[in-house]
Amino acid sequence: YVLTAVFLVLTGVLDDCLCDIESIDDFNTFKIFPKIQKLQERDYFRYYKVNLKRPCPFWADDGHCSIKDCHVEPCPEVCIRYCTVGKGCLAEQLEAFIDWARYDDSQDHFCELDDERSPDAQYVDLLLNPERYTGYKGPSAWRVWNSIYEENCFKPRSVYRPLNPLAPSRGESFYTWLEGLCLEKRVFYKLISGLHASINLHLCANYLLEETWGKPRWGPNVKEFTRRFDPIETKGEGPRRLKNLYFLYLIELRALSKVAPYFERSVVDLYTGNGHEDAESKALLLEIFRDTKSFHMHFDEKSMFAGDKKGAKSLKEEFRLHFKNISRIMDCVGCDKCRLWGKLQTQGLGTALKILFSEKEIQNLPENSPSKGFQLTRQEIVALVNAFGRLSTSIKELQNFKVLLQQTR
């Protein structure tokens, strides 16, 4: 029954774009997922520099999560210098990381960026710190999402988001209000909701099931999936959230197809200091770009910010500031591992938005010299690829839950 409830509703054409869910499932499963998984394992994309010690700028910190699974394993200097990963020694020297920073030259950001020169910023090996359910929940976690939705979704105070246990249920109906908004503001809400759904899916799919002999066992938790996404349990809300996940996937997919010309230039290197590895990483990335361009039902962002120039400009700026604020809220997440993945996925989405709003600049890039009009830092590139990798994984995990629910019937 649950299966029919969630997946009967989760079908057909998405709102605000001419694309159906089944086409996205097929495209993701057969074209994108296997390649993006491979790309995320390469040295350039597996190390992310992050400052997990920045104080929360909005409220007094309510202490860090003491659950051991909240802990992030940093990449010690020894690991950076001599780290052995499966098939032998890593080529990176500490100097290579410093070189990476020299390659970066950034501007107009949708995200609050960590100061990479801060002594608190550290390299994290993402493969050693997978995103999964850590036990971090309750008022502290709710407060973060509450703050994101209530203060950053262009929302008047009288309208409460459904299923927010911290908000009284009064005022105008949420969806009546949402449907009355202009496309841009609806899109903003859907992106945040899609990101929330994606993160929840990762937690359901990588849940701590039991510990035997002190060894944890992680895997899919069908009961948790039902609690978060079943229409009855969520008062009809679950399938909407999952549709927003697909919408977010389309937006980031669109950004990847738009940014391809930036990477196709010979002047752009995925530099780690190992020439052979770098060339292979770039070839795989370009292959993924070719796949994204072959998808025939892209979201058309031209309909956004298409009003009069002045209005469009101020709306875009409002969009950027709201989004920047959300990236600052990620510094309020009490669990380090959740904070790491929250910051990375927010920065990935911020980078996707930056790309979609820079189409002209990307088209006018010089072939053989660094660009002045549009530039991506290594951090933004790593975040963009890994954030899209997480969405690709979410959609794949959704297929797995479909199978598991069929079996439990």
From TrEMBL:
Coiled-coil region(s): none
Annotated membrane topology: Peripheral membrane protein
Q: What does the record give as the active site? A: 335, 338
Q: Which GO terms describe its cellular component?
A: endoplasmic reticulum membrane
Sorted alphabetically, the keyword list is: Disulfide bond, Electron transport, Endoplasmic reticulum, FAD, Flavoprotein, Glycoprotein, Membrane, Oxidoreductase, Redox-active center, Signal, Transport
| Localisation per UniProt entry | Endoplasmic reticulum membrane
Question: What GO terms in the biological process aspect are recorded for it?
Answer: protein folding in endoplasmic reticulum
Disulphide bonds annotated for this chain are 65-70, 335-338
What cofactors does this protein use? FAD
Write down the superkingdom of origin.
Answer: Eukaryota
Annotated FAD binding lies at: 132, 134, 145, 193, 196, 228
Family label: Belongs to the EROs family.
Write down what this protein is called: Endoplasmic reticulum oxidoreductase 1 beta
Which organism was this protein described from? Meleagris gallopavo
Name the encoding gene, please.
Answer: ERO1B
